[in-house]
Structures are given as C-alpha cells and as structure tokens.
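thought: fold this chain, then report.
action: predict
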Amino acid sequence: MSARVVARTVPLALLILSHVVSRVGGAQTSADARVEAILAKLTLEQKIDLIGGVDPMFIREVPSAGWPQLKMSDGPLGVRTWGPTTGYAAGIALAAAWDPELAQRVGASIGRDARARGVHFLLGPGVNIYRAPMNGRNFEYFGEDPFLAARTTVGYITGVQGQGVIATVKHFAANNSEYDRHRLSSDMDERTLREIYLPAFEAAVREAHVGAIMDSYNLLNGVHLTQNAWLNDSIAKHEWGFDGIMMSDWDATYDGVAAANAGLDLEMPWGKFMNRATLLPAVQQGTVTTATIDDKVRRILRTAIRFGFLDHDQTDLGIPAYSRAASEVALQSARESIVLLKNDGNALPLDATRARTIAVIGPDAWPARASAGGSATIESFAPVSILQGITDYLGDSGHVLYVRGLPSAMDLYENTVFHVDTAPNVVQEPLLPRDVMTTTRWAASFTPDRSGMHLVLVEGDCAYRLTIDDALVYEERDQEGHTPHWVELPLTAGRPVHVQLAFTPRGRTVRAGLGIRSMATLVDPEAARIASRADAAIVAVGFDPSTEGEGTDRTFALPFGQDALIEAVAAANKRTVVTVTAGGNVAMDPWIDHVPAVLHTWYPGQEGGTAVAQVLFGATDPEGRLPVSFERRWEDNPTHDSYYPTSGVGTAEPHVTYSEGVFVGYRYYVGASTKPRFPFGYGLSYTTFAFSHLAATPRGVSFDVTNTGAHAGAAVAEVYIGDPSARVKRPAKELKGFKKVRLAPGETRHVELPLDARAFAYWDIKARRWRTDPGRFVVYLGDSSENTPLTATVMVSASSR
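observation:
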C-alpha cells in the first residue's frame, strides 16, 4: 500500500446516493419529484404525525401515501436494539487505534449488521469531546482532540452509509458530561465551540454527508439544543449545508413550537411536544408556518429516497446476522486499540514457553466487559473474557488459575448483618417544583466484629442521604449518580453504630443497597496465594456496565477494593500486569509504581479477551495510542474547577462554564508546568521507531519512519502545528495530521500528509470567521504531544492559503 495519504475520499456508493438528490439546471430530478408526490398526498395532520417517532424506534408509516415504516437501532458499538449482535470496540478504542481506515471497516461491518436486521438508521457515532475522565459516555466518543475525532468520524460514517444505512452523528453539541444532563447548560464562547466541540460534527456533514444529526439533552449557553436555531439552522443546515434529518435524542424535546421553529425535524421516540395538539393551533395562529412543517417532512422523505429505502427491502437476507467476517473486524478493532502504558524491564510480552502458569485475577477478568452501560450496551453473541482469551491462547501448553479477588456489590449488600431499629416510615415532602415525591427513611445498627478501617458501600437509583451516628457519610443529589459510592471509615469492634439511609424514589419502586465490610477482609486471600504460585499474574480491573455508562458520571478512582487487590497481588508476584477496562483515565497513584506493566483496554468489544491475550504474549504488537491525556490527579485536569456546575446549582438550569476555553487536554499540558502521567498520543510498542527527513510546506509535510527494533510493529506518526506569533493566545501545539505505519524490523517508509487551510487557522471571535495570521509556523513530528523530536518552520502568507 502506498504511504501517500489521499484525504477525505468518498466511496462510489455514497457518491451515487448523493447524486440522486442533485439538481441540474434548476430542473427537479426524479428524486425531488418523488418527494413532492408523496408530500402532496399527506394532510397537514399526517405531516405533523410524521415528524414524531413511534413504537419507540420507528418513523411511522403512512400507507395511503405509499410511505413505509423506517426502523432505527441504538449504537454505536454495534446494532444494539434488535437482539444479540456483533460487538465492536468502543468509540474511544477506535480513536485509540489512530486508524480512520479501521473506523471505516468497523462502520461498514456495522452497516452490514444493520442491513441483516432491516435497520434504516444507526444511532451513532457519538463524537462529543472528552473533557474529563468521569463522563459516563466518554467510552462512546472519539477522545479529546477535534482533528483525531473528525478523521475517525468520517471513516466510521463513510463505512456505515456505504452499506445503505443512515448514520446519526450525536450528540449535538457540547454534551460532555452525564451530570444532570436534561437541565445542564454548557456555557462557552464561540471560539471554543468552533475549534473544539464542532469540528467532528462539521466533518460528518461536509465530508461524510451524514444522513442524520441527533440533538443532545443539554443546553448550550442557556438554550436547549432542540430549540437552538443558531446551531441547528444557521450553522448545520445553512453554513455547513446539512440536508438530512435533525432529530432529538430520546425525550430531549421540551417545547414543541420552539423546537419546530429552531430546526428540529423529528422528535423521538414519539411526538410528545411536536404533535397535533401543539402544532395545529400553532399553524392556525401563525406561530409555526406550513412551510416549516413541509421542510421537515421533505427532509425525511428526501433522505429516505437518497438511501433507496423506497426501492428495496432494507432487510438483506444475504447478510448473516452472525459471521466470522464480522468477528474478525471486531477482533481487529480490539487489537489495534489496546495501549501499553508501562513496560518496565520488558515485562511484556510474556513468553508462553516459560510463563507456563498464569494467575488471572480481578472483577474484570470474567465475565467479558465488552461495553459500558446505557444505550450503547451490546449483547454480543459470544463475548470473550480476558480469562477465556488467555486460557484459549495457551491451550494445553499452559495452566491458568483464576479468582475474582473481591466481593461484588451484591455480595456486600446481602452479607452485611444489620439490626433494624425501626421499620421504614414514609413522609410526603416536595423535592422539585410541581413534583411531590416520597422520601423513605430506613434505620438500623451495625456492630463490627473487628477494629480498623471499614468499607461502606451505598447505591440507589434516586436521591439519597447516608448518615452513621448522625454524621453525614454521603449524599447523592440524583444528578451525578455515581454507582455505587463508597467511603472508608474507622470502626471499633463490638461498638454498634447507628445507620440511617433516607432515599427519595423516582417512582413507585426504589433500588437501593447498603453494605459494610472490614477492609482487612475485603480482598480474597486466595488472590495472593495463586499469584505467588504463578509465573505471571494478570490483574483485570476497571469498570463495567453497572459502574460506567449513560445517565451517570463515574468516579475517577477505580471501583471499591480494586486498588487494594492490585497491591496484594503485586506484593505476591513481581511480574504483575494490570489491565484497565474504562472509558478513560483512572487514578493510578496507589499502585502504578508497584507493577511493571499496565495495559489500557478501553471497552474492546466481543473479542477483547482474545486481543488482550495476543498482546500479552506478543502475537501482535500493542498498536494503541492514547486519544486523551492521562492526568496524574484529577486536580491536574484543566477542567477540574469547572467540570461540575459553577452556578445555578439546585435551580432549573445549572451552568457549567468551560473556563479552560480551547485549552482542553494536551492543549493545556503542552507548555504548562503541570504534566500528565501519560500524554496524548502516547503508547509503548515491543519495538522502537525513528523519524527522519521532515520537510514541510503550507500544503503538506513529508518524512520517513523506520522500525529500529527487532520486532514488527506499528508506529503512529503525529504532526502538530504551533503558531508562536499568533495575535491571540493559542495552544503551543495542535494535532493536524497523523498516520499509522506498520513496519518490519529495519524497514523504512516515506510518508506524505496534506495540510489544509484549517491547519493554520483559529476562530476569530470578532470577525466570526476562520483566520490565519500570516507568519512563521512550527511543524512538530513525533509520537506524542510531549515527544516531538523533529521540527520544521513554515512561512504562511495570506496568498499561500
């Protein structure tokens, strides 16, 4: 394959689909005529019905107009809604692969899976930017950098839509946390929005010609996204030329007339607000025009015709619902994404001829953690756990020992002995305006059987407040929703403590749990015993669908007991390898210096266990590179002081001020005194690489990459640009090009990467346009944001762009 990169290509199938809706000499094409013919058959009532979903994953049919029902499916890790499917690596993992061609291959495979199930719309990809590690949906998204996210986005959408399935890019826009997501306002200036949070959406529209955009739950600068005419109409539809369907997230519509006039075309999952009761009077009164309704219906009809939905059955019976080909794509997505963070003393790869006994320990070793929670959760046909992957890899040549090492949350809840002091009593008290909810108080006593630190674990699907001996232990206000939460408290043997849990159910039922366990007995002693007998120990820790996912943020710390488990195993076996399952960074201070090797696996999909085993034993090189910066402490993150609301807390509209501006992630750390633990773009290999012969012009860069080690491997060459003479404050480096290059030992490859005008530009807030200040720019080449050993100078003038 040639090393020369041809950027922004569109497959022939997509060009053909796009051509169907083109206009020649002002005359209507046959597609336009079909749209108008169907529109003419619809009454105003039917048109309004059509812009509200139904059942709750469909656009409704209108048989009298010859209009079929159109089917949707959750995504983006696979075709979720309609039973078991192939589970692919999560979005953050695809970004960690730094391989848009892989993203396109994954998208195409998901598109085929959708066609096998008769799905017209895939609700993905998610392209929101990673600001902080706690966001429960980071795992769905493509990292912290808008350029990397945009290139991954275009590949994924091109793959999906090349199979005749509409991709739905989401969540538009600035939906960067799950905290109180229906009420939270993301507040930022236009430069921050344009440079960081919109580029992936823009690329989806301008380059990939995405068929649908999904508006998010949150507000932007005080305006709900489904009611934001500036974003939906002015930017997406008019500036970018988006001609597809603007749909709401499920229950993300709050005002039917405002949403209709702001560019929302389709309310999902049904017309709760954009319905006959609301819109017919609005049309009669002139607050919503018939032309506005017609434009929405035309967009739905036109997009369906573009993708051929009226010309063939969307269910392709020639595509198997489960196939080895799809599983191979899933395996590749997992393999390319795993990041080797630490490898002291070449602890990895393991030698299967010498490491004959392997201890596999930890809550994420089994069952498989293919995906996190929420609407992206995938029920895979046959997900492979880390335990199974290692066992299958070794076969009869090795011996695998396994223990979970920690109790589950349910174990703690079911095995904590409380003496109930009083029966629950119920009182009525207002919690929110116009909403009277039931608060239940449960009281009991607990008597420890030993002295020392105790773990107190609590969770609930509601607001709750836990006190011990009348002292507040934890309060959940129902917006953040860390599940479960835990604290460590000193307790004295034989001395009872009074425990009270007050919780406010959301509905008629409540799910809550409370458990207490001595820290001295938390870690299963069997973990250290089997680790001491093994040639190497693998500790699989991290999150799962119950602790990371949609609707709640997660903790920065690993779930309860996992730090202690790693330390216990590391003390018993000096060759301890930690694998981390998470949508981003986790706190590593308690154990990072005590283990020689660490792998980050993200959520690797159904073939994750196989991929982890192949990397552990060197059957494949660890190809992943970080798509985010890994801070040492949460306090080091530039969003620390503004990730949660800084104003309006407890009101109908809490506000998060994006005070870091464009200096999110590595844009902050580069040049700052605070450094990340592992920088953006970082990742180790089993071989070494060198870069040379960097040359640059305003139109592109070229360089050589050489494998200087003894193993085959994949380098990721990263090109950054800095503008030291800019008129505004800009990051010292910004990613503007990259290429994954696979090389045999001793092999050299010449690489050329294009640069476009945006590579040198920033958003001028006063002029409200992209601006390049002529002068000297610096081009950096390396393998992370902190390691760019080669530089070149480029003079950019107004005429050169």
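thought: worth noting. The CA atoms of residues 274 and 773 lie 46 Å apart.
final: tokens above.
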